[in-house]
């Protein structure tokens, strides 16, 4: 009789996707599209300027450059550079996703109370725990997964675009592209999603808690409250008392508000084993390195605080009586 | 089996306080299966609070059992058996007809998709249509199609037709009676448009200031209350029998009596069954004073 838990969760997350298709899907797609368009315009502008000013390419020269690079055995460098290009689009899209997820969580448990559609959702046999967890899953799994796919696809399209441009000038760069590691990058980025989940828990928990708590404009609780407290603490600092202010801004405001943006765990990582130089630039995102952040106890403490706030949000969702 | 064991809803001393006002003060009632109960009361009388308590949407003091479950502790289980339409137009504005049907079909174990699609086929709703593109009447049609396809034992309707035109209102109650209601189902409805529901109700409950002031089935209401049209000559005699209400029509007086013997009333004039709305007005006199 009872709908299996996973099936129910699938439909609950799907429901979130339906409602927030604009933020979860179209925002990354459009960001990627604009990124590609700007690059294309850059290429065209370059070509037009070149033709107007009668500058001729010296393909052989460039080829030599590439060949020299290869001869010097710096293929790893080129590969890392190409990987970085691929990755840069994902990084950009991830920032957009950070904003989307931030505002999504802020409204997740508030908007339906505001427009009273909560009365419809609550008329269905779905527990409040499942509802809140589905919103958490939409923010920490679905949104980053879409962002990674959009980011990698955009990055690859950009690489192809430049490859075509160069090959029109007789530079055979197709084989250079084989030096890139798109699959490894995609795998690393997808593999980072669980880390993002852990990392973002304090922010997700705080935003969901404010969203479930607030009777109007949840952003006032979520943002204004910690900032005002921070300013007050700053005052005491000025007066020469406790130096809690810096710690507060970094560990409370930073972790409660800004951890919707991925990558903040870089500061927690163990970078000792990391190779130096351009060839190793991308090692930062590879899993064995990224997950060294888990060794930092404060990451776990913050995640625990996030989990407690999510429990609070579930309780409020169950008992908040608005009318 | 006792009536209590069978009852769909049993409330004992149901109390709910909001800060310094009591929305419900020791309300006690029972609702048997297969009934259509009208919960009628003025604004702020506690109707919605009572329904919210039944649906497990609010905390309260006192005892309450719905289908043998405690709505505070077993809400998830309860909602498989209970449906509600709380107010018009609470469907999310972004959802499409197709999405709403899909979603409910996959999270509600007692939802019959074919039935729902059959109801929708009788409306002008199209699968891709969004709620925000619909009129209030169409939103209620969609909501009703979703709810009627759920094999629930208790249906709670809180002002389900507010703001709809007469065609939609009639259609709403007609669909409920013809295609939904049977002896295993129970419906609780609150509304201000008493005239439109009184012929479908089996039971009447008046609520005033958080208390149940009348709780009877419609037959009992017909026996207990009587309306008599009395000429001016016998008006004084009628007043002596302590009517609960009096109004004037075409030089005659219409008196409403509560629990006065038929024989006595027949001597005064023509007896009629009072309309629920007149009964309501007489019972609630002075509520807003």
Task: Give a verbal description of the structure.
- The complex is a heterodimer of chains A (323) and B (289).
- Chain A is mainly α.
- Chain A has helices at 5-19, 21-52, 59-71, 75-108, 111-114, 118-121, 128-168, 174-177, 182-191, 193-213, 218-238, 244-257, 287-290, 297-319.
- Chain A has one domain (5-319).
- Chain A contains 14 helices and no strands.
- The longest helix of chain A is centred in the middle third of the chain and has 41 residues, at 128-168.
- Chain B is 33% helix and 28% strand.
- In chain B, helix 5 packs antiparallel against helix 6 and helix 6 packs parallel to helix 7.
- At the A-B interface, helix 1 and helix 6 of A face helix 3, strand 5 and helix 4 of B.
Provide a compact summary of the structure:
By secondary structure, chain A is mainly α. Chain A has helices at residues 5-19, 21-52, 59-71, 75-108, 111-114, 118-121, 128-168, 174-177, 182-191, 193-213, 218-238, 244-257, 287-290, 297-319. Chain B has 2 domains: 32-59 and 70-209, Rossmann fold; 221-283.
Report the major sheet of chain B.
Answer: 6 strands, mixed
Largest sheet of chain A: none
The sequence of SSEs of chain B as H and E is HEEEHEHEHHHEHEHEEHEHEEHEH
The domain tally of chain B reads: 2
CATH architecture of the largest domain in chain B: 3-Layer(aba) Sandwich
Q: CATH superfamily membership of the largest domain in chain B, which one?
A: P-loop containing nucleotide triphosphate hydrolases
User: What proportion of the residues of chain A is helical, as a percent range?
Assistant: over 70%
User: CATH topology of the largest domain in chain B, which one?
Assistant: Rossmann fold
Structural class of chain A: mainly alpha
Question: What's the structural blueprint in terms of helices and strands?
Answer:
The complex is a heterodimer of chains A (323) and B (289).
Chain A: H1 5-19, H2 21-52, H3 59-71, H4 75-108, H5 111-114, H6 118-121, H7 128-168, H8 174-177, H9 182-191, H10 193-213, H11 218-238, H12 244-257, H13 287-290, H14 297-319
Helix pairs in contact in A: 1-2, 1-7, 2-4, 2-7, 4-7, 4-10, 7-9, 7-10, 7-14, 10-11, 10-14, 11-12
Chain B: H1 3-6, E1 9-18, E2 21-31, E3 36-40, H2 47-54, E4 61-66, H3 75-78, E5 82-86, H4 97-107, H5 113-121, H6 136-148, E6 154-158, H7 166-180, E7 186-190, H8 194-197, E8 203-208, E9 211-217, H9 218-224, E10 225-230, H10 235-240, E11 245-249, E12 252-258, H11 262-266, E13 270-272, H12 276-283
Parallel strand pairs in B: 3-7, 3-8, 5-6, 6-7
Antiparallel strand pairs in B: 1-2, 1-4, 8-9, 10-12, 10-13, 11-12
Helix pairs in contact in B: 5-6, 6-7
């Amino acid at each position: 009789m009872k709908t299996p838990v996973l099936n129910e969760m699938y439909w609950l997350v799907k429901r979130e996707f339906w409602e927030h298709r604009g933020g979860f899907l179209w925002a990354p797609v459009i960001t990627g599209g604009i990124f590609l368009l700007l690059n294309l315009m850059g290429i065209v502008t370059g070509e037009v300027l070149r033709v107007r000013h009668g500058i001729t390419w010296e393909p052989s020269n460039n080829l030599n450059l590439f060949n020299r690079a290869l001869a010097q055995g710096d293929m790893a460098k080129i590969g890392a550079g190409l990987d970085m290009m691929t990755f840069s689009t994902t990084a950009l899209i991830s920032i957009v996703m950070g904003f989307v997820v931030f505002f999504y969580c802020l409204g997740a448990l508030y908007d339906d109370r505001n427009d009273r559609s909560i009365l419809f959702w609550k008329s269905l046999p779905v527990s409040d725990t499942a509802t809140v967890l589905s919103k958490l899953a939409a923010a920490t799994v679905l949104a980053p997964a879409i962002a990674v796919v959009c980011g990698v696809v955009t990055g690859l399209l950009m690489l192809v675009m430049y490859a075509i441009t160069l090959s029109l000038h007789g530079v055979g760069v197709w084989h250079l592209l084989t030096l890139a590691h798109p699959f490894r990058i995609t795998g690393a980025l997808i593999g980072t999603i669980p880390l993002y989940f852990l990392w973002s828990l304090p922010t997700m928990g705080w935003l969901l808690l404010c969203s479930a708590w607030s009777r109007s404009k949840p952003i006032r609780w979520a943002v204004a409250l910690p900032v005002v407290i921070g300013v007050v603490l700053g005052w005491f600092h000025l007066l020469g008392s406790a130096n809690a202010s810096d710690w507060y801004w970094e560990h409370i405001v930073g972790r409660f508000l800004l951890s919707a943006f991925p990558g903040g765990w870089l500061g927690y990582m163990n970078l000792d084993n990391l190779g130096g130089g351009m060839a190793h630039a991308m090692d930062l995102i590879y899993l064995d390195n990224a997950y060294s952040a888990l060794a930092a106890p404060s990451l776990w403490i913050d995640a625990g605080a996030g989990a407690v706030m999510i429990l609070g949000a579930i309780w409020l969702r169950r008992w908040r009586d608005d009318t | 089996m006792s009536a209590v064991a069978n009852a769909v809803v049993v409330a004992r001393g149901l109390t709910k306080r909001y800060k310094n006002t009591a929305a419900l003060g020791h309300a006690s009632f029972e609702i048997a299966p297969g009934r259509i109960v009208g919960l009628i009361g003025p604004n702020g009388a506690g109707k919605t609070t009572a329904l919210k308590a039944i649906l497990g949407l609010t905390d309260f003091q006192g005892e309450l059992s719905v289908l043998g479950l405690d709505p505070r502790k077993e809400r998830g289980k309860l909602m498989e058996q209970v449906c509600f339409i709380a107010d018009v137009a609470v469907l999310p504005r972004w959802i499409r007809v197709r999405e709403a049907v899909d979603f409910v079909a996959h999270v509600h174990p007692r939802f019959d998709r074919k039935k729902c699609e059959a109801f929708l086929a009788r409306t002008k709703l199209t699968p891709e249509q969004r709620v925000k593109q619909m009129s209030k009447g169409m939103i209620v049609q969609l909501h009703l199609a979703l709810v009627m396809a759920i094999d629930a034992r208790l249906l709670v309707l809180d002002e389900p037709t507010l703001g709809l035109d007469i065609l939609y209102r009639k259609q709403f109650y007609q669909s409920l009676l013809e295609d939904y209601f049977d002896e295993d189902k129970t419906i609780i409805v609150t509304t201000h448009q008493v005239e439109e529901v009184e012929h479908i109700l089996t039971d009447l409950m008046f609520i005033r200031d958080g208390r149940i002031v009348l709780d009877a089935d419609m037959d009992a209401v017909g026996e207990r209350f009587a309306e008599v049209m009395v000429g001016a000559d016998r008006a004084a005699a009628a007043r002596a029998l302590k009517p609960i209400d009096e109004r004037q029509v075409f030089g005659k007086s219409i008196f409403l009596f509560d629990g006065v013997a038929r024989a006595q009333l027949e001597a005064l004039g023509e007896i009629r069954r009072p309309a629920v709305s007149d009964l309501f007005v007489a019972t609630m006199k002075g509520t807003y004073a």
